[in-house]
Amino acid sequence: MAGVRPMLSGVPETLLWTLYNRAYEAGRRYPVLDDPVALRLLEDLDYPFEERFGRPNPFLSQAQGLRSRCFDLAVQEYLADRPRATVVALGDGLETGFWRVDNGRLNWLSVDLPEVAELRRKLLPASDRLRTLSRSATDLSWLDEIEDPQGRGVVVTTQGLLMYLRPAEVREILAACAERLPGGILVLDTMARRLARGTVAGRSKVGATAVPPMRWAMNPGERPKLRAAHPAITEVRALRLPRGRGAMGELIRIQSLLPGLRALTPAMTQLRFGGRTSY
Q1: Domain range for 171
Q2: Using only C-alpha atoms, what is the Rg of the chain?
Q3: Which of 37, 53, 86, 242 could disulfide-pair with 207, CB 3.0 to 4.6 Å?
Q4: Alpha helices in 32-188 (DSSP H)
Q5: Which stretches are transmembrane (predicted)?
Q6: How does pLDDT run across 179-216, given as a tens digit for each residue?
């Protein structure tokens, strides 16, 4: 059977680069991320990955795997206390987090642009606890699709998304989640300002492909500013990358900790939302 040809460009095309790297890492002998669904996706797609993105870079691929694993661990930590929670994955792309963290009880809502949502429906296995919503993350009506958010709990993930939005859009998403999801959490990643400026100027490429402009950026030391988005944001916590594999994994860990180097890769942060008050 012929593979599915993804017709994507701009920001949506970046999901193919992350899949490429995640699948490469998942295929290693001792992967930092167990992701057999990603390996199958790579086989099912008719797309010139190497031509567009170059050969996989072992450092970037392991770092990509560790980033996804960091998101998984945050979700699993929340599910340990609220196993029937809803996970809302904004800009889910061809991420396969549902199958990596599924405890048999959670519900998953994948929110993405129509062309990406169509790809997910074509390529990924169906489940009665997984829904895919064709909608932009900036269209906050996706919040209306969450069933019993206070009773079950909610985790919102925004992996590889917010940096491509405008600052006002990011603030609106954070504020809406804080207002409407008391007791929930949101996990995000951010790019440093210097690297984001390179994308806006058109200087950043992955292989032969230009990186789309990153409109919102934040240095790791600026995390406390996220509290200003809404009074119900009660905690802003830095998430550390899990331990990687071998010397390369140790290099990634050290790079993510040193002030002069940690801005070279995305920084992960978790927000926690308090209960409703009279604000």
Answers
A1: 11-273
A2: 18
A3: 53
A4: 36-44, 49-53, 58-81, 97-101, 114-123, 149-152, 167-180
A5: none
A6: 999 999 999 999 989 888 888 877 777 776 778 899 99
